[in-house]
Amino acid sequence: MSNTTIGFIFITIGLAFDFLGCLGILRLPDVYNRLQAATKCVTLGTCSILFGMFLIVGFTGGGIRAILCIIFLLLTSPVAAHALARASHISGIKLWEGSVIDRYEEDRIGR
Amino acid sequence: MNRFTRYILGLSVFIGIFYIILYHPLDILIYPKLPYLDFLRRSFFVLILCSILCLYRIIKGPTAPDRIVAIDIFGILIVGFCAILGIGTGRGWYIDIGIAWALQSFISTLALAKYLEGKDFDE
After folding, report:
1. How many angstroms away from the CA of B94 is the closest CA of chain A?
2. Cα–Cα distances in Å, from B12 out to A3, A12, A47, A97, B108?
3. Which candidate from B65, B87, B106 shows the least CB-CB separation from A31?
4. Of A45, A56, A72, the CB nearest to B102
5. Average pLDDT over residues B4-24
6. What is the distance between the alpha carbons of residues B44 and A19, in angstroms, rounded to a whole number?
7. How confident is the model at residue A52 (pLDDT cuts 50, 70, 90)?
8. For residue A18, which residues of chain B lie inside 8 Å, CB to CB?
9. Using a CB-CB distance cutoff of 8 angstroms, which residues of chain A are in contact with residue B99?
10. Least crowded by CB within 10 Å, which of A33, A41, A85, B53?
11. Nearest Cα to B54, choosing from A34, A77, A10, A46?
């Protein structure tokens, strides 16, 4: 298989993960569950699309900038998701009523 | 509107959107110079479908963090859109738009998280 075929396979995987992540944003019942789906959408979806673009284009300007964009997304997206989850918990968003355990609430009360 | 009616309505909407993706009867994006025209047009339709799902969550979201999550994922989808445009047209500078958009989305998400938390921005 040539590089172009492998790149299109990567782009197809990325599109599938993007679709599943957005379906999770639409269907899951809670803010925290939606964040859990959304982070999959970033790291496996769009990073896979960018890596497929790197495989197709090669070592040109666009390909190297795609690698830089992958590194940037992998560094920043978990930070944003963690800050958002912490902020929503502090600002008093309730968990879904089917949730089992809430360790962060126990830590904040016991402190 | 009971549960069965809603199920049938959602199923019909999804079947219609997948029909558009697979057979593309609408020629919305006409780019005659793209080398891999069919595949890229279908991936455009997939990303537009994902954006419509995110827009529903932005409009209907019950709380503020729901909307922030959906806006963040909307920006990430735009990065993927720019990557696919960069493949098709062979111009590398489309990914620059993606990098700038990702940076702006990250900063805005952090600022909105701090605002929800009720603290000052310089903490």
Report:
1. 8
2. 38, 24, 31, 30, 36
3. B65
4. A72
5. 83
6. 12
7. very high
8. 46-47, 50, 77, 80
9. 65, 68-69, 72
10. A33
11. A34
Q: Of B106, B87, B104, B39, which Cα lies nearest the Cα of A63?
A: B87
DSSP 3-state assignment of A97? coil
Max mean pLDDT among A35-39, B23-27, B31-35 falls in A35-39
Residues of B in contact with A74 (CB under 8 A): none
Which ipTM did the prediction report? 0.86
Cα torsion B81, B82, B84, B85: sign:
positive
Phi, psi of A95 (to 5 degrees): -75, 165
Question: Given an 8 Å threshold on Cβ–Cβ distance, is A76 in contact with B114?
Answer: no
The full DSSP string for A9-47 is HHHHHHHHHHHHHHHHHHH-SSHHHHHHHHHHIIIIIIH
Which of A22, A55, A74, A75 should be substituted to probe chain B, the one whose Cβ sees the most B Cβ atoms within 10 Å?
A22
Domain boundaries, chain A: 3-110
Q: What is the CA radius of gyration of chain A?
A: 18
Residue A68 to residue A49: CA distance in whole angstroms: 13
